[in-house]
Input
Amino acid sequence: AGPTVFRPATVGNCIYLAGTNASGDQVTIRAFSLPNLTAKWKGPLDWPLSGGAVVSAAQAGDGNLYVSGGGSLRVYTPQNAELVRYGLSFSDPTNLAGDASALWAVLGSEGRVVRSDISAGLGQTINWEEVTFPISLVPTCLTLNRFSQIFVLDATAQCVHAFDIELSHLLSWTLPEDDYHQGGLSLDGGPGNLIHVFSSKGNVYTYLP
Output
């Protein structure tokens, strides 16, 4: 599994990479300070993986870093200290995303999305609910903007679908012919609300919804 690379959801001074080591048997997370990409933190040392495990990561609106892999979810504070860890009762998420109120997980192998309410803080257990979209889709990954609108990439249909926080369908658009099954979505974080869609081949398509 390749690394997940992302800027923090909140304004910060570092960039995170989460993935596996070269042999694929250990989760590795790295933090680099901006703008010079100086190595700031590396961990953990105690997260072994078995074959076929998928690593995903996201920083939610609470400032915490959420990392999943090998059937578990670990949460790290902005100071890179482990806050809590949970077992997962579903397949490894192929994508995580979060805002101040919820953590979202795309279960690519199961073709569904679940989310957990994190608005009241984290406890010793974590509860998940099924996300039911009002239109038929096969989720590959998703992202959220500052208005808590949800953008879902459907690689099979080569479409992006947008929903509001109540999951009402806002719009959909068709992507150029490409392979998106190992692709993703990202926001530029600026006032323009631009959506960047990248394909498995490394092509990037930018949209203003």
